[in-house]
Amino acid sequence: MTIIKSAEEIAIMRQAGRITAIVLQKMSEAVKPGLKTRQLDEIAERELGKWDTARASFKGYRGYPASICVSVNDEVVHGIPGKKVLKEGDIVSLDFGVIYRGFQGDAAVTVGVGTVSPDALKLMEVTKGSLTEGINAAREGGFLGDIGAAIQGYVESRGFSVVREYSGHGIGRDMHEDPLVPNFGSKCEGLKLKAGMTMALEPMVNRGGWKTRVNSNGWTVHTADGSLSAHFEHTIAIRNDETEILTVL
Ligand code: MF3
Ligand code: CO
Q: Which ligand is closest in space to the CA of residue 199?
């Protein structure tokens, strides 16, 4: 677990987060029917190339072959960019991470391709809303379980389900650090939250049941029941007076 102690460290984490957000934004804007998912990876690499001291954290991570994850419709996370062509009505989760001067940013958004069904729109809104709820629950003096409880309560009361087999995580000098930050749980349980902790909150929300399966490529996670899934992620820092979102423009 990285604990941010100095003004310099938080400034670097902010810049890592900002670069992550800029690249994600560029990809989101490019999403349209007819685009191949590989082209989103190319956009990310081109955009990231503007910073000579930043690199894509996913590339080569445990052998992962690309700079981004792009997960379409029933794909939950870890979709590998490739020949797949986006079509009107799809929903696309884009996940991207950066290493900058020894510190990490990690963020994800789900966007629609052209016009999407009211159901898909609702799923994306609820997932995004649940991330906001989770961030608001991540407070100095609170508990890790407060975050999962806030996300789970928000999602389930709206008729969707949260993925259990994948979670948020501590982040800082490494992309994945302790603690695991589940998107479900109970208030006032688990680790006590302290100023200086940095973590990635990332609810993955399914239209149907919460169960998932991994595709034969060994990476791509699908919903077990084939239902749609959405994913939003921010890297945050718990501070004394407030919780700061780092992966913003
Ligand atoms: N953003 C993902 C996460 O938070 C990481 C993608 S896994 C990788 O866990 F292998 F692609 F890097
Ligand atoms: Co993450």
A: 2
